[in-house]
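Dear support,

I submitted the protein below through the web form. The confirmation email said the job was done, but the results page showed an empty box. After a refresh the structure appeared. I'm attaching both so you can tell me whether what I see now is the final result or a partial one.
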Amino acid sequence: MGNRKLQKGEGHRQRLREKFLLSGLSGFHDYEVIELLLTIGTPRKDCKDSAKEALSKFKTLQGVLEASGQELCDVKGIGPKTLFGIKLIKAVADRYLEQKVIAKHHIHNSAELFNYLYATIGSKTRECFMVLYLDAKNSIISNEILFKGTLTASSVYPREVVRGALNQKAAALIFAHNHPSGDPEPSSEDIAVTRRLLFALKIVGITVHDHLVIGNKRYYSFADKGHISRMNMEYEKQESAND
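What the results page shows now:
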């Protein structure tokens, strides 16, 4: 009886793999995607029930991929070995998107960055403030998450941003942070922090191209909405008044 169940489970996994190799993820339910990932770490274990429970608990495929190892291990049937496939594919996807973005010769608009930023910080449960360092040709040199927590004047330090930019020998920066609520509309604090950073970087000759707020499958671009241009004009007026 046990052997027949094992053979049935193996046949099911093989059918899922063949289906994927034939047509990719087209036609797959989200729980089947999770099931496939779970079988990477446990090739002889039936993972369907665990996959469905994980999807029920974290609501979406993205929620499962973003869950911590401890949270995943709280799901019945998932342990350190089982979650290997989920954590591996998330890390591979992040690196792929990062290298794809960095490999571009130039960054032309906010939409080109959105997929990478959404995958990287879009589903974080805390606000994460990321800086992308660009060279004189607007190619991305590198990026890093500098701050975590609600974006306020007391939590984002201009000197840390300036230091990072100088260390990277950056000519320009793009800021990005997520809104866990899913609504990318910037707060008054978001705008104030952006202005402070832009002014601080102007002093050392580094340009701010944009600040993207990442929400649920959408984003808000400070540059696209004219904020960056207005802030640059404010800075120039302030400098003229001081002369």
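Response: this is the final, complete result; the empty box was a page-load delay. The CA atoms of residues 104 and 143 lie 14 Å apart.
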